[in-house]
Design brief:
Length: 496
């Protein structure tokens, strides 16, 4: 009978992954050691990366197109008799802060920000429940069904928004389409399940940290392509065609998911019965129950890691909620095309620097210190964004802040490496819930703060969210101190 999967064993204080057997319907793997990947892991990694790339491209292209469509629609509704004076940039932007045109622009930004809040709520509220449920279910039912579900949710959302743009439906119906996506789990469940798959094919060492960074790199490339094509397609042929491209990209992602091997074999699925109450208790134990097999503070580390992750994601997602409006307003007055180029350069530079930087730094630094360097970079970026009097400052900001988001994949890996193999879905479900809370709250808080402070000082919101990144930095410092105290530099103790 062929080898398939593994079981986790601690024999004489040495961790190893022992091959187990199953039928031939699932891909065969073997793995042994504290910092290894399974044999044939590329057969899983490549289609997972490809499907996530196209799905993130679809989602982000749709997000930018929707925001720009909403901005244009509200301009036409609130200022029907106003023509575009700055035709070279295709913008209603006015740089004279004392003019009536500038005041009208601020009114449009406030209204479109509130509309963005409604969409964030419609998507985020159901995601709080669907992401936790589906991620936990994947431990006992397999990963692939929930990859399909999340991708189908994104495709449905993009298709309905395309129809809404073509037939000029009421713009507030977009919140209903986002609700459908949220119920299916959307991009959040896709990321959570993909991270669990990476944990399935790696052991709890630096190889897992790096492959999670690779997957995050793919997310970033999908994000970059989505932002790049949105502006050009909108400028050249219109909003509805840009959304149609999103539909095609999501459909391609669904096709690629068909080729992803199942990493939770049938034997493992039969041995892991699902219970909502049991899974909830399992997640709660991650935070409140100490590991009896170790004297080290793994619970403290898990709580500190999840809080650091929360503050980082709040800062990241909150600024995304209003950054497009910030760039479209004065004194920058970016057109959709220019926004696409700017965001693409920013995302590609960041992902390349993060991937190379993590690989190089892992040779001499522990994961927590690498993440701390990233938070310092993020602080510099947000401060420069907030004070930028011209777009030159924005380009300087993306250069110094290019390593900023490295802490996100690093923190995912840290939490995964503290968790046993049969609970990876649960831990990534927990991370997904936190990410969903950030996604929900950030859209509301970010949009609300920006809409209320944009007339006072446009960069205020960036300064506020800089404080979130600083909080994450303090938590990482505490983890570094704890790691050195307990000599965790080279490995992690699995939570029992």
């Amino acid at each position: 009978m062929p080898l398939i999967g593994y079981k986790f064993s601690t024999h004489h204080n040495h961790k190893q992954y022992i091959p187990i057997t199953c039928n031939q319907t699932t891909l065969c793997f073997t793995m042994k050691g504290s910092d290894k990947t399974r044999q044939n892991y590329l057969q899983v990694l490549i289609p997972v990366c490809a499907s996530n790339f196209f799905l993130l491209t679809s989602y982000v292209n749709g997000l930018y197109t929707t925001n720009e469509y909403g901005y244009s629609t509200f301009q036409n509704q609130l200022l029907p008799n106003r023509s575009i004076e700055n035709t070279s940039e295709g913008s209603f932007c006015d740089r004279n802060t004392s003019s009536q045109a500038y005041q009208d622009e601020q009114t449009v930004q406030e209204v479109v920000s509130r509309w963005g809040v409604y969409i964030s709520l419609a998507e985020g509220l159901p995601l709080l429940f669907s992401s936790l449920l589906f991620s936990s279910l994947s431990d006992s039912m397999g990963r692939k069904p929930f990859l399909f579900l999340g991708a189908i949710g994104v495709l449905t959302r993009q298709f309905l928004m395309t129809l809404a743009m073509v037939f000029e439906w009421n713009i507030y119906l977009f919140a209903t389409f986002a609700l459908i996506d949220g119920i299916c789990g959307g991009w959040v469940i896709e990321i959570a399940i993909s991270m669990a798959i990476i944990a399935d094919i790696t052991s709890a060492g630096k190889s897992r940290s790096f492959l999670i960074a690779v997957l995050s790199f793919v997310f970033g490339m999908g994000f970059s392509l989505g932002t790049f094509v949105s502006g050009y397609i909108v400028t050249e042929i219109g909003y509805e065609f840009s959304m149609a491209v999103s539909c095609g990209s999501a459909g391609l992602a669904i096709m690629i998911i068909c080729f992803i091997p199942e990493t939770v074999c049938k034997t493992q699925r039969k041995n892991r019965t699902f219970s909502c109450v049991g899974k909830l208790k399992e997640i709660i134990r991650l935070f409140i129950k100490d590991d009896s097999s170790s004297s080290s503070s793994t619970r403290f580390r898990f709580i500190a890691a999840i809080l650091a992750f929360f503050f980082l994601m709040m800062a990241k997602l909150s600024t995304v909620a209003f950054e497009i409006f910030y760039l479209m307003g004065s004194p920058y007055c970016f057109s959709p095309e220019k926004i696409s180029v700017f965001e693409t350069v920013r995302a590609v530079l960041s992902e390349i620097v993060i991937l190379i930087g993590i690989k190089l730094m892992q040779r001499c630094l522990m994961d927590e210190i690498i993440a701390l360097v990233g938070t310092i970079s993020s602080v510099a970026l947000l401060v420069l964004y907030g004070i930028a009097p011209t777009d030159i400052y924005l380009y300087i900001a993306i250069a110094v802040g290019s390593f900023g988001m490295c802490a996100v994949p690093i923190l995912r890996a840290i939490m995964s490496k503290m968790t046993s193999p049969d609970r990876q879905g649960a831990v990534f479900g927990c991370i997904a819930v936190v990410e969903n809370i950030c996604n929900l709250c950030s859209g509301v808080i970010g949009g609300a703060i920006y809409s209320e402070t944009v007339a006072l000082y446009r960069g205020t919101a960036f300064f506020i969210f800089t404080g979130f990144v600083v909080m994450s930095g303090f938590l990482l410092l505490a983890m570094i101190k704890d790691s050195r105290k307990n000599k965790y530099r080279n490995d992690y103790t699995s939570i029992q």
